[in-house]
Model the fold of this input.
Amino acid sequence: MERYVSDSGIGGKTIFEVDENQFGEVEMTAILSMIKETIKAPIFSVGLGGSIYSTPVVYKGLVYFGACDKNFYAVDVETGREEWRFVTDGVIIGSPAIHNGTVYFGSYDNCLYALSAENGKLIWKHSADDMIFSTPLVHKGVVYFGCKDGNLYAVSTEGKLLWKFPAKDSVATSPKVYKDVIYFGSDDMNLYAVSLDCKKLWSFAVNGCISASPEICNDIIYFGSMDHNLYALSIEGKFLWKFETKAAIALREPLVHNDVVYTGSREGNLFALDAKSGRLLWKFPAKDIIITTPAVDRERIFFGSDDKNFYALDMDGKLMWRFTTNGFCPSSPSVYNGKVYFGSFDCNLYAVTVDGKLVWKFPTSLSNQSRIDIESEHLPRTVQVVWKPETGEEKEKYKGGEADIADYGTFSGTYIDTTKTDYLGRKKKGYKTR
Done:
């Protein structure tokens, strides 16, 4: 039994176990094509489980976060005791926003929720046309968020739809407002600038999906792409510089602190770049994917990795300590009052001191980690080998002897969406995913 690992891009890997003796070469082509690097971050493919992807938010003595068990939680910041939970009908991996005592978050049940931050009671919910990963942004009485249906939504703080701006593919990024302009990216490979009344101001095209949210500082927009680059643009959309990594930059926005840009990558490095020029200052290697937005406090940089570790570095990129969990750490950390809060795919929310000592951990309602099933749209198009049966003449030619595969029948290459092939629809003996 051979094991193959596919980078899922979200904070995990899909492991294929294949008994190669059960398959011919042609059938193996279809199966193994799924193992190629994804071209979209499969954030909408996270299944039910207790895992935490959401970034926790601290507000008035409580820590707020969603989980893949469909629950949104509020727990005491000091003790980790649950204060309340709210049940939705879908997985929650997006992060919440809190404004004037109301907590806003999206769910994979296609709804944006507004709850009382104090007691968790529903104030209203707004139904979109597909799943919501984007962290909502509240600005001047309007809640902005992206959706898998390809739209940026604007909803009043009373829950009324004001407008939708259409992109050409999913909007997983969290919008940012800067000087009354909304900036967001899309899987259609464009970063958009839109006015508060839904007029397109400009767009900037790159060579990969943009699922990493933008960050804006000193009139410069920073954002990553699946094309392996971190970009810097002026707020008018003019290209300034880009920094190329060896793998995709997916899902989270970079951190800008004291004229330094910090960003992770699928290659497993945390990079520190000069904010004005993009020059590399240093990089720190973890042992797996880094997609979290780092946090800074007391001259320490905090971030998690898919190697199941949570790290603290000094400002020169030297390791101070690491804290090991039992799952991937895709949840961006929050720092408050000498403690760091972050979630793990091991179904726990952690509170550790800035020195790396565990204070408490809070388990979600499910102990099984969430599955990540790669959808067809996340895979690159590839060449499928199509078998053409031999003719009667060819059968006679090779009867009773051995033939080289190059002489036996013919093959043709065709670009296909590999996961729609019949081979993957069959439940073959010896093949399973998990």
Summary: Residues 2-38+375-433 form one domain. The chain has two domains: 2-38+375-433, 44-363. Helices lie at 25-32, 392-398, 422-425.
